[in-house]
Amino acid sequence: MDLSAINPVLLIASLMVAATAVMIAAIGELIVERAGVLNLGVEGMMITGAICGFAVAVQTGSPTAGFIAAAAGGAALSMLFAFLTQFALANQVASGLALTLFGLGLSALLGQGYQGIKPPSTPRLDIPVLSDLPWVGRIVFGHDLMVYFGLALVAATWAFLKYARAGLVLRAVGENHDAAHALGYKVVRIRVLAIAFGGAMAGLGGAYISLVRVPQWTEGMTAGIGWIALALVVFASWKPWRVLLGAYLFGGVTVLQLNLQAAGIAIPVEYLSMSPYIITIVVLVIMSADKSRAPASLGRIFHATH
Description:
InterPro entries: ABC_transp_permease. By secondary structure, this protein is mostly helical. It contains twelve helices and no strands. It has one domain: ABC transporter involved in vitamin B12 uptake, BtuC. α2 (42-60) runs antiparallel to α3 (63-87). The protein is globular, with a radius of gyration of 20 Å.
């Protein structure tokens, strides 16, 4: 066992990369749940975004086009969920689970012929002078644009929910959709827009896995990260900054266990592989002990005839 091979600077930099996909997807789901909708189809939308982004990036040679296509693919799949739950008034839990199964099957179909192909590389945002700083430069200023997009998304979501009028309306719909409807707010329209945003973010998270984190296409490559994103939202008490903390914890343990495997630590690989999921959930359960409650209308069907 050689722990000296683990570079702490590289470890922290890799942590930020490993956390980005789950963080972006979780922030999208946070907005959906704040609107009073429970969408369990995050995994399906992520894997659909992963293949849509990968295929378009390979065909066009542009990672940017791939990320745009991934967001569009995730949002398009989320519209199926929106139709079922907001117009057909189907059960949200069953619809979300069906969406995940549909997304996994659709991505397997679309991904035929893309195995073994390398996508165009996503360039790093190297900032002159700052990127060359010892330690800090590699950790903070040596990443691709999507890492910074994820951080900006967390800050923007926090400000949107706390200060923006539209954010307050969204929260009102999530707390009491009947009261919001009585005040003249278009509950279904707001929820459909929230669902579309959540789908787009899940798609971006999936594309980040297939284009940056593991630059290749493999069937089922999201490997449960969509479910971790769902758990992050609940255990983070629907607060954006806690989602960031939980995502970084998950990314950190993921990277650390890979480094420990490479260092030859005498722990079975299976235990190391499951450790990111176990540690993240345990810590987030402890964090959620402040008794913050879910949005009151979460998962409840809104009847527009009220």
